[in-house]
């Protein structure tokens, strides 16, 4: 209850600040849309030169992309921590965070949220509906529920990976560009992972499990029964990776050195 | 100009800074390999049974992808974000009274960073990739020469665009959206993800009038020998053209920015 | 009951040093040199409720590091800490509700939003009821005179204005223990006075315990009966401020301002048998004599010097705190 009221307090504050800098807000929403369009264009251009990708049709690949956008939007809205090292460790903002009576990770999540990213949920749903209707997919009564679970699982996987990366900053004093580069790798989970060799496939499934934020859960809606097991592992992986990340984070906070003078 | 020593020093310092961030170095190599690997398999799947697409065969495409990413290591830099940050923190006002050109310094820092990645990153990286994937290197010495000239222009054009996006902070105050948008546009329209020749004709025509192809498409096409003969000179000409033209908006924006600074008092 | 109980507290920082030159930097890619720096070296400290303690020491002595450990920001390398009956790092979230912290070097408020919005947010974060907030903060705002600043965003405030707001923000939950790390840095005399008055006031009213670091000894003189002196991570003095004064020098200081340049050895010859330390002052031709002994010795020295060298001014006074501290920094406590 306490956290809920804190959340709304911050959210209200956030909206006030954002509306002060409206120009940037508009540009940011537009750049989000652009980002979403870019990947779609990539798919469309590629399928201008081929009809199937390892047995998957254009609409199926587009559907996977649409699904991906939903957990991704939730992730970017709340886990805007790509500059954690710079901002909180090097500049020492963590000092302030640690003097407040709210869990440090939660504080950072709510003070850095970017609610406008949630527009991506709408784009993603629209793309899924478009591709789904082209494919003639039926909607069952349980589909919305499954979707919700898959989306939450996917967002947690993203959160887990990025929190883990952020936690590294507590130990290593040097700056890294790891996080921006990780965004690229997230893209590869959106293609049928059996196109890759065993190493990359293994990585995308168990080490950086981005395949669970794309092709695996989508396989359920696309009726690819051979991947149902993976599909239903999505929420499990999400919880697992988030737990690992939070444990690492809590350990990391103990290693926080403060801003070097 | 007596300033060239200063600029050289900037390159050297940035070079040393990059060496100091060793986590960055190791993780960078790992991530670039994964990127190139994933794209390699993706393109294998796209080619499927097809011999060639748009006049490029699968082996050329693999080379294209590898070279595009390795060239990116050289021309890519974050000076737009750095400039934006320095403007927001009011550091630029201080830089203005220093005896050198702020934008020149930023460019040199980017160059130091790029040289570092080219030497310690792209060159060893290329060897690794050459061992892992079927990549064809040209045995024509001239191709290598043209390629290096071409990526120098890539660096110039990309940096110019970064300077412009960074300076936009003078007028926007908060600028993260624009910087993010620019990055996405460059990845797509520069030919990093897809050779420009793969796009539908109407799109190709639009892109001809944009500076982005000068960043990635041209050097990669030269390296894969998809451009030959006069095509190469034409392509280098386009790069030179953009490198020259972009100076105009940069100068314009800089003058306006200075005025803005005087009005706002930093 | 002690509010702060610290036993054998230690903090070590591992710092990497880079080799010089390009070849060195290249070697750093593979192996790096590092040193262990003991920023806080086995200190023990006990503070009772309602005390105001001045924590002083040179730059880099380890003051901020100590405060960060006491507030739960840093984990100690070794030692036992109990603050307000809790281990700061273990029960961080519960613990920080019972303290207030101000770092003079760094803002605790949100940069973009109005001061009162920050206050409102903190009120929620610390679960302060409306009534308690009204009653307590009304007074704080009035005393610190920040009413007119409340609707301005923090980034538009001057340093002194911001500092007063920071102080108010740290007190929203009326904590029984307050840590202030250089709260008066860069402030003008009037703001400093206001802050000192305010701190005295809350200490009197709520028995608030205050631990404060500063480089302005006037702060300490105005506020603290007790000082803790830190040097290279070790406590070298912990006791009453006036005691420090007494222990350090029994004697007096005589400031001479001569008409002409005077050599040190000429002055030393004039000292005769008395125990006199000569030091050049800041102004030109100014010399300061530190003399141990009674008034008799002082007047004898003065007359001897004045006979030999014409003066334009002369003053006799007790050594100031600043003087004492500076001597300790320069020479250590050995003379004590
Ligand atoms: N994060 C850190 N990493 C490495 N060394 C540190 C770090 N923080 C502090 N130090 C070192 O620990 C020592 C004590 O620093 P500290 O900040 O506690 O000094 P201080 O007494 O507060 O000094 P000042 O009066 O300048 O504020 C210094 O030598 C400093 O270089
Ligand atoms: Mg300090």
UniProtKB/TrEMBL annotation, chain A:
The chain crosses the membrane at residues 25-49, 61-82, 115-133, 145-171, 199-221, 227-249. InterPro entries: ABC-2_transporter-like. Pfam families: ABC2_membrane_6. It comes from the Bacteria. Keywords: Membrane, Transmembrane, Transmembrane helix. This is ABC-2 type transport system permease protein. It comes from Evansella caseinilytica.
From TrEMBL, chain B:
Signal peptide: none annotated. Coiled coil: none annotated. It comes from the Bacteria. Keywords: Membrane, Transmembrane, Transmembrane helix. The chain crosses the membrane at residues 25-43, 115-135, 141-172, 184-202, 232-257. The keyword Cytoplasm does not apply. This is ABC-2 type transport system permease protein. It comes from Evansella caseinilytica. The lineage of its organism: Bacteria, Bacillati, Bacillota, Bacilli, Bacillales.
From TrEMBL, chain C:
Gene3D superfamilies: P-loop containing nucleotide triphosphate hydrolases. One of its GO terms (molecular function) is ATP binding. It holds the Pfam family ABC_tran. Keywords: ATP-binding, Nucleotide-binding, Transport. Residues 24-257 form the ABC transporter domain. SUPFAM superfamilies: P-loop containing nucleoside triphosphate hydrolases. It comes from the Bacteria. This is ABC-2 type transport system ATP-binding protein.
């Amino acid at each position: 209850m306490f956290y809920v009221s804190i959340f709304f307090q911050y959210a209200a504050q956030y909206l006030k600040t954002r509306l002060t800098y409206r120009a940037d807000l508009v540009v940011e929403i537009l750049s989000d849309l652009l980002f979403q369009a870019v990947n779609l264009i990539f798919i469309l251009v590629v399928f201008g030169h081929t009809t199937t990708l390892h047995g998957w049709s254009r609409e199926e690949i587009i559907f996977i992309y649409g699904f991906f956008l939903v957990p991704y939007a939730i992730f970017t809205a709340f886990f805007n921590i790509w500059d954690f090292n710079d901002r909180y460790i090097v500049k020492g903002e963590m000092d302030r965070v640690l003097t407040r009576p709210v869990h440090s990770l939660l504080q950072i999540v709510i003070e850095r949220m970017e609610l406008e990213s949630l527009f991506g949920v709408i784009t993603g749903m629209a793309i899924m509906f478009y591709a789904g209707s082209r494919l003639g997919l039926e909607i069952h009564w349980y589909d919305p529920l499954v979707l919700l679970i898959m989306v939450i699982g996917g967002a947690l996987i993203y959160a887990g990976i990025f929190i883990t990366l952020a936690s590294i900053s507590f130990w290593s004093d040097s700056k890294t560009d790891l996080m921006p580069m990780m965004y690229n790798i997230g893209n590869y989970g959106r293609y049928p992972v059996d196109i890759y060799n065993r190493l990359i496939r293994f990585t995308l499934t168990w080490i950086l499990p981005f395949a669970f934020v794309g092709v695996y859960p989508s396989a359920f809606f696309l009726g690819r029964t051979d991947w149902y097991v993976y599909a239903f592992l999505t929420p499990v992986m999400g919880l697992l990776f988030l737990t690992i990340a939070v444990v690492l984070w809590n350990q990391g906070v103990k290693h926080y050195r403060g801003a070097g003078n | 100009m007596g300033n060239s020593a200063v600029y050289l020093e900037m390159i050297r310092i940035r070079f040393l800074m990059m060496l100091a961030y060793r986590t960055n170095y190791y993780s960078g190599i790992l991530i670039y390999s994964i990127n190139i690997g994933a794209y390699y398999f993706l393109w294998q799947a796209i080619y499927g049974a097809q011999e060639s697409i748009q006049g490029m065969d699968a082996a050329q495409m693999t080379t294209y992808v590898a070279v595009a990413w390795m060239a990116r290591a050289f021309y890519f830099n974050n000076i737009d974000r750095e400039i934006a940050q320095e403007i927001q923190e009011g550091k630029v006002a201080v830089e203005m009274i220093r005896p050198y050109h702020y934008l020149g310094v930023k460019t040199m820092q980017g160059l130091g960073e790029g040289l570092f990645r080219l030497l310690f990153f792209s060159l060893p990286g290329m060897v690794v990739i050459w061992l892992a994937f079927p990549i064809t290197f040209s045995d024509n010495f001239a191709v290598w020469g043209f390629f290096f000239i071409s990526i120098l222009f890539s660096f110039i054009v990309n940096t110019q665009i970064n300077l412009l996006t960074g300076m936009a902070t003078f007028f926007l105050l908060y600028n993260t959206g624009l910087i993010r948008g620019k990055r996405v546009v460059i990845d797509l329209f520069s030919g990093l993800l897809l050779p420009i020749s793969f796009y539908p004709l109407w799109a190709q025509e639009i892109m001809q009038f944009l500076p982005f192809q000068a960043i990635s498409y041209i050097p990669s096409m030269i390296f894969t020998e998809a451009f030959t003969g006069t095509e190469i000179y034409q392509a280098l000409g386009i790069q030179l053209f953009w490198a020259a033209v972009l100076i105009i908006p940069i100068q314009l924006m800089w003058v306006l920015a200075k005025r803005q600074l005087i009005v706002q008092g930093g | 009951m002690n509010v702060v109980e610290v036993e054998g507290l230690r903090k070590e920082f591992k710092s990497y040093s880079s080799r010089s030159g390009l070849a060195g930097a290249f070697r750093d890619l593979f192996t790096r040199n590092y040193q262990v720096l003991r920023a806080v070296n086995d200190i023990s400290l006990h503070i009772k409720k309602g005390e105001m303690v001045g924590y002083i020491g040179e730059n880099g002595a380890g003051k901020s590091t100590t405060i960060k450990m006491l507030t739960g920001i840093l984990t100690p390398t070794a030692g036992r800490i109990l603050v307000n009956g809790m281990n700061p790092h273990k029960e961080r979230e519960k613990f920080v509700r019972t303290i207030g912290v101000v770092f003079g070097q760094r803002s605790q408020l949100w940069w973009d939003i109005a001061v009162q919005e920050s206050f409102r947010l903190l009120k929620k974060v610390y679960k302060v009821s409306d009534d308690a907030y009204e009653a307590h903060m009304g007074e704080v705002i009035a005393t610190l005179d920040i009413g007119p600043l409340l609707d301005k965003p923090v980034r538009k405030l001057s340093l002194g204005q911001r500092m007063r707001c920071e102080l108010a923000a740290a007190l929203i939950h009326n904590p029984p223990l307050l840590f202030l790390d250089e709260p008066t840095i860069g402030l003008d005399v009037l703001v400093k006075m206001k802050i000192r008055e305010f701190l005295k006031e809350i200490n009197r009213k709520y028995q608030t315990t205050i631990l404060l670091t500063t480089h302005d000894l006037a702060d300490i003189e105005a506020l603290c009966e007790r000082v803790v002196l830190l040097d290279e991570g070790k406590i070298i003095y912990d006791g009453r401020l006036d005691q420090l004064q007494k222990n350090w020098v029994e004697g007096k200081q005589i400031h001479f301002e001569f008409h002409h340049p005077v050599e040190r050895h000429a002055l030393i010859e004039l000292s005769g048998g008395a125990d006199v330390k000569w030091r050049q002052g800041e102004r030109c031709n100014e010399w300061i004599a530190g003399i141990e002994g009674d008034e008799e010795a002082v007047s004898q020295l003065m007359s001897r010097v004045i006979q030999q060298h014409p003066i334009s001014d002369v003053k006799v006074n007790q050594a100031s705190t600043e003087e004492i501290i500076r001597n300790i920094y320069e020479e250590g406590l050995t003379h004590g």
